[in-house]
Design a protein that fits this description.
By secondary structure, the protein is an alpha/beta fold. It has two domains: 216 residues, Medium-chain alcohol dehydrogenases, catalytic domain (Quinone Oxidoreductase, Chain A, domain 1, Alpha-Beta Complex); 161 residues, NAD(P)-binding Rossmann-like Domain (Rossmann fold, 3-Layer(aba) Sandwich), CATH 3.40.50. Strands 3, 4, 5, 8, 9, 16 and 17 form a seven-stranded mixed β-sheet that branches. A six-stranded parallel β-sheet has the order 12-11-10-13-14-15, with helices on both faces. The longest helix is centred in the last third of the chain and has 13 residues. The model has no long low-confidence stretch (mean pLDDT 95).
């Protein structure tokens, strides 16, 4: 089968790889019909995630058709069209019972934090992901969800990660009616966080980024304010000034370790890798939120230390909430929002690329070429 093949930082290609096999009675094999390249995949592509091994296939956002099931699978059947959450979760452990599917303890018991994730390095299980023609899906009675007949597949594939992550970012912010929300990052997750903030009652939503085409897009898509931090002398000072010097009620870090805006953070976090990515957006979030406010973090950082102003967190009485999105928990509500027209995820898709051209898609997305917002990969069988 065709599959994306990681060859080292900034080097991917599409090769023939063996078809996946059922290895456990709870497994399913899914023929992929859509997969996405996520901003988180760029962390892997850029060489920022530990234990990302040559030969890996990325891709934690995918949908497809069930082709084969293990002997114990009961909730999906061959021929079902399913969306597969990026969390690989058992559904039974102490954390899954709390609907913390991103922290499943059975799937990744040796980790102190995250559970397994499709196509996201050996620190998250070492599973091949969905940027391929076929993929093995463990715990097939837990994650895979049958896609409603009425749903556009382009909407469905975005429910595997980007929509739930943006929505949970807003949810974790505890947004109340009348709140001012600042989202750092106008990538796909930041766009969805801004859009979702209105659903929780925000009265004002502000997005900070440095790419004008993304800022233009989020202004139109999420009906929000958007500012280029390169045009601001000091983003924190600007945000304080525009909120009557109090600060925002909620700040969302939707960037993570690839953040630009600070030479020191970029050098130590992205160039020398002395910390787990550049924490610029997190600094701005902590320093821009009001006293007693909430900082919500969904941007991806590595598992090691970061330089953050923890003293400001303490002295301002800030609440910090963060996690991988619990996709399965959020799906019923998000499907309802799409059905009722409150969310329209597929509008953020800017590029539909044949799987065979994945290397070009990664380059375009990474280099921010051609006004790229969100690329999806389409395998040959889905183009017939």
């Amino acid at each position: 089968m065709l599959a994306m093949n990681y060859r080292g930082p900034f080097r991917v290609r599409v090769d023939q790889k063996p078809y996946p096999e059922i290895l456990h009675p709870g497994d399913a094999i899914v023929r992929v019909t859509r997969s996405c390249i996520c901003g988180s995949d760029l962390h892997l592509y850029h060489g920022l995630v530990p234990d990302t091994r040559v030969g890996s296939t990325f891709g934690h956002e995918f949908i497809g058709v069930v082709e084969e099931i293990g002997s114990s699978v009961e909730k999906v059947k061959v021929g079902d069209t399913v969306l597969v959450p990026f969390n690989i979760a058992c559904g039974k452990c102490a954390f899954c019972k709390q609907e913390l599917y991103g922290n499943c303890h059975e799937s990744n018991p040796e980790a102190t934090a995250v559970g397994w994730i499709f196509g996201y390095s050996h620190t998250a299980g070492g599973f091949d992901g969905g940027q391929a023609e076929y993929v093995r899906v463990p715990y097939a009675d837990v994650g895979p969800t049958v896609i409603p007949d009425w749903m556009d597949p382009d909407d469905a594939v975005l429910l595997t990660d980007v929509v739930p992550t943006g929505y949970q970012a807003a949810e974790m912010g505890g947004i109340k009616k009348g709140d001012t929300v600042v989202v750092f990052g106008a990538g796909p997750v930041g766009i969805m966080a801004a859009k979702s903030s209105w659903l929780f009652g925000a009265a004002r939503v502000i997005v900070i980024d440095h790419l004008e085409y993304r800022l233009d897009f989020v202004r139109k898509y999420a009906q929000c304010e958007a500012y280029n931090f390169k045009s601001l002398e000091d983003p924190v000072l600007f945000l304080k000034k525009t909120t009557d010097w109090l600060g925002a009620d909620v700040c969302i870090d939707a960037v993570g370790g690839d953040a630009a805006g600070s030479a020191m953070q970029t050098i130590t976090g992205r160039k020398l890798m002395l910390q787990a990515g550049s924490a610029t957006a997190l600094h701005w979030a902590i320093n821009s939120v009001k006293k007693g406010g909430i900082v919500s973090i969904v941007g991806v950082y590595g598992p090691t230390d970061n330089l953050v102003p923890i003293g400001n967190v303490v002295n301002k009485g800030i609440t910090i909430r963060a996690n991988q999105a619990s996709v399965k928990r959020l799906l019923p509500r998000l499907i309802e929002h799409i059905k009722e027209g409150r969310l329209n995820p597929k509008e953020i898709i800017s590029h539909r690329v044949p799987l065979e051209e994945a290397a070009d898609a990664y380059h375009i997305f990474s280099a921010k070429l051609d006004n790229c917002i969100k690329p999806i990969l389409i395998p040959p069988s889905a183009r017939v």
